[in-house]
Amino acid sequence: MGYGEITASKALALHFLCGVGLAAGYGIARLGCDLSLVADPARTLRLLLVVEGPVIIGIYGWVRRDREHCSYSKAVARGLLGLPIGALLNAFGAIVLGAPVGLKYWLSTIYWSSLMSLFTFVPAVCVFGTSRTDWQRILAYSKPKEGVDCVISLPAQGAVIGAWLGAWPMPLDWERPWQEWPICVTYGAIAGYSVGMFASAVFVPVLGRKVHVKDD
Amino acid sequence: MSSSSLTCGKLASWTIAAVLLQILGLSLFVIGFFPVKPTLPGFSGPESYRAPTCDPVLDAEERDLPSEKLRTLYKELSKVPPSYGRLVLMVIDGLPAEFVLGRGDKPPTKAMMEAMPYTQSLLSSGKARGYYAKAAPPTVTMPRLKAMVSGAIGGFLDVAFNFNTQVLLDDNLLDQFKRIGWELVMHGDETWIKLFPRIFTRQDGVSSFYVKDTVEVDFNVSRHLDVELAAEDWNLLILHYLGLDHVGHIGGRHSTLMPAKLKEMDDVIKMIHMGSTVHHQNPDASTLLVVVSDHGMTNGGNHGGSSYEETDSLALFIGSGVESLEFSMNAHKAVHQVDIAPTLALLFGVPIPKNNIGVLLRGMFDTLTDEQRLRTLQLNSWQLLRLLQAHLPNFLCGDVTCISGEDNLQTDQSISSMKENLCYLYSRAISAHNAWLLHQISGLTSNDADDLGYAVNSYYDFLGNASEWLSHRATDKPINLLLSGIVIMLISCVLLLNTVFKLFKEVYITQGKYCSQPKEISQVWQVDEAFVLIGLVIHALSLGASSMVEEEQYTWHFLTSTLYLLFLLTTIRSLFKTAASDLMKMKKPEENLTLHLAVSNDESSYTTNNRSLPWTKLQKNHQIYPVLVVLIFGRILRGWHQGGINWVHLPDISKLLMQAGSFSIKALQIFSLLNFMLVGSFAFSLVRSTTHFVHIVRTSYFMSGCLVLLHIINSQTHNIGPTDSSATSVAQLFYICAGSAVLLTVLVSPWIYPVNHEASSNIGKFNLSSHAKDTSSIAESSTSSLTKEMISFYFQWGIGHCTYLIGTTCMVFWCLLQLLLQQPVNAIPLLVIFLQETASIIYFSSYGSLHKQWIEVVAMLFLGMAGHFGLGNSNSLATIDVAGAFIGISSHSTVLSGILMFIITHASPLLSFLSMLIYISLKDMNGLFPSNLRWSSILQLLIGFPCLLPLVLNSVVLVAFTITLLLMRNHLFVWSVFSPKYLYLCAATLCVYIGVLIIAATVVYTGVVLFVRTKNFNSKLQNFG
């Protein structure tokens, strides 16, 4: 097995914890603070961010690459640093795709893009750091070849595609409150992220077996 | 090379066949779906008081009598004296009848009752008569006013094709009043002035542009009231209040401003009613106050559709004759808005307008004698009969065999049974009328009331049926015609798809053998390709939802931005890759260079090489900037015009600029003009051969630019005079200057391209360089004559050069033309679209493009569509810029202004086609061109995708939307949303044809000329050798 390879059970545990974090965040918002995404998107997103952020940074730091040169705390620091950078990238994408830029939406956009950053950019930063070859691989190959790639890229791609699809109902004239930015996009992103995690949890064992066969 | 299964000629003929089929299918469908309703020309005159005959010649009669004479003539002929002398028509824009009359049996809400105390007291005491006057969609002001005064509901195409003249030319009440010498006065919405430009003695138009203003707009009307009510000179006073509509647009139906506004309206009604009753007691000059609303509003305060809330408009008659015996709260009736026109016509003693489909309002003629009442119904029936005869030739002529009894009253589906039914009802009404008359004369008064009631009811039966049939005339569609149209379009679409697949195979599989594509491009399936296919499917499907049609600008912006984000991703990927493999590449000798590369590497020695543009040397890591430019500019463009229907009122940049005033708009216009000049002259300076000719073109470009500058400055300072002669002549000068420059370039440039000089002076260098590189294919070439490869090579070179020159000229002149024609606020969006196209060309033509050619063509088309909506266009006919269509036209010409309107509306898609010319010329065809191709194959490779893809994309959308339209033909929004979109789609199809024609004609023309010239030169050279 190559360095940093991830086992199926480890991947499953990782995704399970991420999922639980997300669900816990939503549960706290719903029950604890009486917040809902529709009524108050900015504060709900902030709560989700606060709950899910430590979970993701902590867990992905745990499966970091290059363990000899990189301590756990360094991986966590990388994740914390990556959060605003990823948020910037995601906000750029969202605004270019038509997200509103009015003052009314600034807070929501910031929190939403931070959450997207948690789904997409932060895991990769935690695991890979600044390793150029790893980044190239994760960007260039649409087909993941290793377990870690799977664990990082599938949920991320799921979140992005889900958010993209989630934007489609926005122009419809149904006059529902959830059609506002960024509510349905967030729903889409979370749904896509969950699907991605599920796919990853399925794929990692398959990939692992393949690698195993090859090794033999 | 010639083994290709798809020759150029075959490709062209298949394409042309498919296009012809598409045109056929489209016209069949359009004819079937948008029937043109026959209308009667001219104005009703004295003949309307005589029974209709079958000979149309008899009906036409001299009517040029002086107004006084005409009035008395009408009085004599009609046998019904006018009930009133003066009319006050008070239009309250957007007032739902529910506010005044309640809904159904329920009275209006308490708040509404309290807001209009005077009106409610009039209603409850029986001094006023209220009707629910159901409005026909589209529920917007202008068509509704037309319906009220003419009694006609225009067919869809009537509405669509009437933008170049908003003047109401059909027969209508106001013109009838004018004919009998009335003085007309109008205060309020300037729509009236647009409809009737020269009819009013006094007028004060207010604009409905500032929707936020709910106070001033009504004050500007009411301030005239005191004077006008005291004045004796007018016969018709129109007051059109917009404030209530504005209140609705801002706060919706239940806005907190609504009661206050209703109170204000109530006060106006009170004032008019008091004033008119005090001043005029004699019946000749008695005044009728008619309070109407043009349409209702939804809960959100919008209108335009056909829901109950929107069509629920009011007709309230207040006057001395209206007082009825029956208690009027029960007399509210659901009628049609068009019924107002015939009622007013007969109340005031003028003929009913010719195309009226309305029916006299029941209860409005109760004060007349029985004979007169029947007479009014008879007049209405005669008028409708005349209109029916226009729809059904020979209706009620000769054969009187239609008295077939009541049995087929219900089974009236087909036209013939409908005809019989109407015929029967008409005859019954006439005979009942005659029977009553007979009874009157003979003095038998036993069952007088019964006879009268029977006659009245028979008339109303006929009138109601005829009116309903006429108003639904537009909705029956020959399904066979529609289906055959769709099938033909489908066949054409399949043909086009088949052709494009063949071409695809040709280019990427057959050619793949001998061309050296980068590995990632020849990879079978790329993300952007998958996305484009999915995106196109999503777009086609989204057209099935009415709000996605209304808000199509979001779809296009979303798809385009996503595509360019994917490009960004690809670029970043390749950056990582290059950085990783840089070291490896440095060591590798450049082995597999094709002929092209060998020469273009040596480009420092080529002074006449137009392909040595700065960006072909663009560093790989700078490739990212054009994509970023496209993305960021795309977002600016999205924010410029909010667009669409549902959120059009939200703030955007164009509204901000409008508020900022004309100076800043003017500054931006000049700014973008300067940018166009700079970019244009830079683009011209890149052409390094035929410099003298380019100087001429550039000079005329500068001249045109100055003319546009002059126009901008002029039009801003003299804002009032639209028909300013100097402005017109400036625009005309520009047309001449730009047109001749473009025509000259297109025709001349392939002839003066220095093929002889170029070729002979380059043979040496060419061979030198090739020997130095020691490429195998060059080694075969002899120094004495040009080889086939070299001919092909120079041929391609020449095409590239000429197409670049032509494309640049067309594109920059097109932008100048648009700067002249478009609304001033669109100057920056134009610049932005232009820069987006330029950036895309730079990105695609820079060294080593990362995408397949067809993706690049699709991306340019996407940009064109996103830009189309970025310029403020939408799928509603309201956004068509009518004002621009008259710039530089001295006399009224429908054709010319139609062309200008098309140019303005489709500015951006056509720009993307023109920029495709530059794209073709700059595209580094390294990988695609084996040097030993025949010239026709080269042409095929050059223009195959740029010509076929637009046709295919358009065809797919057209077929998908046609099927949608057929399925939606009974949808609520079919006339307000889907049909306008279909018209836009037809125009877009035309636009694609034009664009493809321009590309194909230019490249083929250039190719043929150059081919002939190189061949001649070659044979000369060989003779010489």
Automatic annotation (TrEMBL), chain A:
Keywords: Endoplasmic reticulum, GPI-anchor biosynthesis, Membrane, Transmembrane, Transmembrane helix. It comes from the Eukaryota. It is found in: Endoplasmic reticulum membrane. The chain crosses the membrane at residues 12-32, 44-63, 75-98, 110-129, 150-167, 187-208. One of its GO terms (cellular component) is endoplasmic reticulum membrane. Pathway: Glycolipid biosynthesis; glycosylphosphatidylinositol-anchor biosynthesis. This is (wild Malaysian banana) hypothetical protein. Its main location: endoplasmic reticulum. GO terms for biological process: GPI anchor biosynthetic process. It is a multi-pass membrane protein. The keyword Acetylation does not apply. It holds the Pfam family PIG-F. It comes from Musa acuminata subsp. malaccensis.
TrEMBL record, chain B:
Pathway: Glycolipid biosynthesis; glycosylphosphatidylinositol-anchor biosynthesis. Residues 816-1005 form the GPI ethanolamine phosphate transferase 2 C-terminal domain. It is a multi-pass membrane protein. The keyword rRNA-binding does not apply. GO terms for molecular function: CP2 mannose-ethanolamine phosphotransferase activity. Gene3D superfamilies: Alkaline Phosphatase, subunit A (3.40.720.10). It is found in: Endoplasmic reticulum membrane. GO terms for biological process: GPI anchor biosynthetic process. GO terms for cellular component: endoplasmic reticulum membrane. The chain crosses the membrane at residues 12-34, 481-504, 530-549, 555-576, 624-643, 663-684, 696-713, 733-753, 794-821, 827-847, 854-871, 899-920, 941-967, 982-1012. Its main location: endoplasmic reticulum. It comes from the Eukaryota. Keywords: Endoplasmic reticulum, Glycoprotein, GPI-anchor biosynthesis, Membrane, Transferase, Transmembrane, Transmembrane helix. Belongs to the PIGG/PIGN/PIGO family. PIGG subfamily. This is (wild Malaysian banana) hypothetical protein. It comes from Musa acuminata subsp. malaccensis. The lineage of its organism: Eukaryota, Viridiplantae, Streptophyta, Embryophyta, Tracheophyta.
